[in-house]
């Protein structure tokens, strides 16, 4: 038995245009379907595998600093979803073609990642980021 109490972080998002949101995150961003369910009354949920999950807690000063570095002004709501990708520019272009709005193009950060900000379906403010340095050995 593990000492870990939490085995998974799952972010649940209500999407008014459910089908468009599923297409965007599944087909364009490339998150594979882990499971999907239907319930009475037209209820639907699709669970997408987003790889490893972390919970990043930042105080207001850090949130402002990240906005300043990545965008140049305060833009993020209280919550932002970040996806690590292999090619931030290509993924940003794909997401824009699929309906996301660029808030800031891919920008190199002081912590050596290439980060883009977008407003995406289901009302999510997202970051796509590409680590520029290889992971430590």
TrEMBL record:
GO molecular function, one term: lyase activity
Keywords assigned by UniProt, alphabetized: Lyase
Pfam families tied to this protein: Glyoxalase (PF00903)
Domain named VOC: residues: 7-131
Name listed for the protein in its UniProt record: Putative enzyme related to lactoylglutathione lyase
């Amino acid at each position: 038995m593990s000492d870990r109490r939490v085995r998974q972080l799952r972010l649940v998002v209500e999407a008014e245009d459910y089908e468009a949101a599923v297409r965007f995150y599944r087909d364009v961003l490339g998150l594979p379907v882990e499971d999907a369910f239907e319930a009475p009354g037209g209820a639907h949920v699709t669970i997408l595998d987003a790889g490893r999950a972390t919970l990043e807690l930042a105080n207001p000063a850090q949130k402002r600093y990240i906005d300043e570095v990545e965008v140049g002004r305060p833009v993020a709501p209280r919550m932002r979803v970040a996806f690590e990708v292999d090619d931030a520019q290509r993924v940003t272009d794909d997401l824009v073609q699929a309906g996301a709005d660029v808030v800031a193009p891919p920008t190199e950060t002081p912590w050596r990642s290439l980060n883009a900000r977008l407003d995406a379906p289901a009302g999510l403010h997202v970051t796509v980021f590409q680590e520029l340095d290889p992971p430590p050995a």
